[in-house]
Amino acid sequence: MKKNNADQILMLLKMRGELDASVIAEELNLSKEGARQHLVKLFDEGYVEKVCKSNGVGRPFTYYSLSQVGKDKFPDSHADITVQLLRSVKKLLGENALDLLIGDREQLTYARYSEKLGNAKGIEDKLSKLAEIRSCEGYMAEWKKENDCYYFIENHCPICAAATECQQFCRAELKNFRNLLGEEFQVNRTQHILANESRCVYEIKPQLKSAVK
Question: Per the database record, which ranges form the HTH arsR-type domain (predicted)?
């Protein structure tokens, strides 16, 4: 099996979640049979899981998703040492010191992002620039628009272990997004990797005029 095809399939499953072979074939410009062969090999190697689902008509379809082994191919950056450091700060200096540490990181991150988004023209340009920044940091970020609502999607969390240990990271991230996108938009997290979902999703929609101060 060609390594590049296998990696592309794993990346697609990481980005899109559960898919069947026909969708994978279409997305990656493969034949259906070729996609199935790659998926069988990935399943045998333990990188993907499969489940059969019936749509009510005809035979059931087989859907594929990443197994834990497959997810581990998208690593959490320096997970062990980060968690150890967080625990040491909390133990030696206390919870308040940890809050101050994360607060300082939040401010530095906001300043850096704000500078890069400073010349953005409108919400879509902001989201594109933010997705580029976050992707460079390992979050595999993208955005899409549905009707009047935008969705900012992070398909991977490179600090997942740290965020699991200390969820102030997630709260700081949401606060920064709200500040960066402006008070004319309402930003809420609707999916969360720490809630055992495959990605973090932020719903961004215009504030009601009466709600904007």
Answer: 8-50
Q: What is the mean pLDDT of residues 66-89?
A: 78
What percent of the chain lies above the pLDDT cut of 90? 38
All structural domains of the chain with their residue ranges: 3-71, 79-211
pTM for the whole structure: 0.74
3-state secondary structure 98-129: HHHHHHHHHHHHHHHHHHHHCCCCHHHHHHHH
| Residues 187, 30: Cα–Cα separation, whole Å | 38
Token reading at 164 = 């699991």
Short-list 85, 94, 69, 92, CA closest to 159: 85
Nearest CA to 123 out of 176, 174, 182 is that of 182
CATH topology for 79-211 is: Muramoyl-pentapeptide Carboxypeptidase; domain 2 (3.30.1380)
3-71 and 79-211: same fold? no
